[in-house]
Design a protein that fits this description.
The strands form 4 sheets. A 5-stranded mixed β-sheet has the order 3-4-11-8-5, with no helix packed on it. A 4-stranded antiparallel β-sheet has the order 7-12-9-10, with no helix packed on it. The chain has a single domain, classed as Jelly Rolls (Sandwich). Strand 9 and strand 10 form a beta hairpin. 12% of the residues lie in helices and 46% in strands. By secondary structure, the chain is mainly β. The longest helix is centred in the first third of the chain and has 18 residues, at 2-19. It comes from Methanohalobium evestigatum (strain ATCC BAA-1072 / DSM 3721 / NBRC 107634 / OCM 161 / Z-7303).
Length: 149
């Protein structure tokens, strides 16, 4: 019985350590790493594929969905959810075209609490081409919050 508890504890510790932020060999912050996808704070949005800016608004407990078609051959996708109000909290979940769920992500996940979640999703072997979905959730919103993504 003791051995089973030790093994279970070890598995849980490994799972928790894998799910937390890590760094790669270049000391770059990695938020999530799953099945070839690496999510980290955005570096340079000028060279990455990103959604054309869409403006929307959200209230407490509301969910909005946005789509982005990713072309074959892309290796990096910038996802920039910006509401600019640190008093409100939005949550972002990314669904890849090949069925992976990345996130959820919160304001602090890109390294700065500024009313913005600015992330790069990378896959050196290529991002899944097709329709990607972004789920924006009004985690804690006073009234209505305008945002862009």
């Amino acid at each position: 019985m003791f051995r089973k508890i030790c093994i279970l504890t070890l598995v849980l510790l490994l799972t928790v350590s894998f799910a937390t932020a890590t760094t790669n060999g270049d000391n770059e912050s990695i938020i999530t790493k799953e099945d070839g996808y690496i999510v980290k704070p955005a570096e340079d949005t000028e060279t990455s594929v990103g959604i054309m800016t869409v403006s929307d608004s959200i209230s407490q407990g509301e969910t909005d969905w946005h789509n982005k078609y990713v072309e074959d051959g892309s290796t990096i996708l910038n996802v920039d959810l910006n509401w600019g109000d640190v008093d409100d909290s939005l949550k972002l979940t990314i669904y890849t075209a090949d069925g992976h769920k990345l996130g959820p992500y919160y304001d602090s996940d890109d390294g700065t609490i500024d009313g913005r979640i600015n992330l790069d999703v990378e896959n050196p072997n290529g991002l899944a081409s097709g329709n990607w979905k972004y789920k924006v959730y009004g985690q804690q919103v006073d009234g209505t919050e305008d945002y862009t993504i």
